[in-house]
Amino acid sequence: MKVLFMGTPDFAVPTLEAIIKDGHEVVGVVSQPDKPRGRGHHLAPTPVKEYAQSQGIEVYQPLTLKSDEFMTLLLRLDPDVIVVVAYGKILPLSVLEYPKYGCVNVHGSLLPEYRGAAPMQRAIIDGKRETGITTMLMAAGLDTGDMLLREAVEIGENDNFEDIHDRLAGVGACLLVKTLSGLEKGEITPKAQDDSLATYAAKIEKSDCLLDFSRSAKELHDLIRGLSPIPLSFTHMPDGKLLKVVESSVFDEERQSEAPVGTVLFADNDIKVACGKGILSLVTVVPEGKGRMSAADFVRGRKIAVGDILK
Q1: Burial label, 212 (beta-carbon count in 10 A; 0-12, 13-18, 19+)
Q2: d(CA 259, CA 280)
Q3: Measured between alpha carbons, how far is 109 from 46 in angstroms, rounded to an integer?
Q4: Model confidence over 224-271: pLDDT tens digits?
Q5: Cα separations (Å) of 173 from 194, 278, 284?
């Protein structure tokens, strides 16, 4: 197949790599414009652009897909299919309707569950024990297109966003290759989503990251996992300074402390905090203005003590 690939972050790279290895002709790659990064704010290529260029593939970074210039490019490249993986922009109808085999998206959930911007994070935050990848034919709605193939992936009780992100990136690459083969051979029948079962995975906002210790230890552990290693959940020390949390565990799921929620009950090898239900252990933290460190090192630095209240 002649494939036009559209993607931006590192999650999309394994799929592009798999398409190339499977022998498809990648006629071009479309990625988001370069953005400034680091202290010097120098423009840096997207991970997809960087990989595509290493393979000698032409990369295009249009500011909009609705221009005559992009349609001219599409006509010139004339792909049989457009593969979209975390591209980051909505495709106009003119693009969706162009390829013979349509626009195929690799989505990080078992649709129709978790449509939207943050399916992997939200599944972990919600305490789900399973997620997966769905390939689908893109339509005008938000992740509403007909499903092609699906593959489930287990979420371990201590898996964080990075774990699931990397696992799903690999699964998505393999599933996309199977999808292209099935479409070309006419062996896949698209299946409509049941909209009544749909849930929405909203973009992660700063307000989502605040640890509310009136919630249960299990809920907070799931939140911490879903936001690690980025953007990270956080709380505030008694002096108002920020304390981000990288890793946690549920010390006790049921025990109720007489201390107010957010109270530090123990501070030794980890930091045990009273919750609305149960006790949460903070294992790895990032204090304001500091780097990542174990909770034990933070305690040894005498920056926190039993009786402190986090909020």
Answers
A1: middle
A2: 14
A3: 23
A4: 999 999 999 999 999 999 999 999 999 999 888 899 999 999 999 999
A5: 25, 40, 32
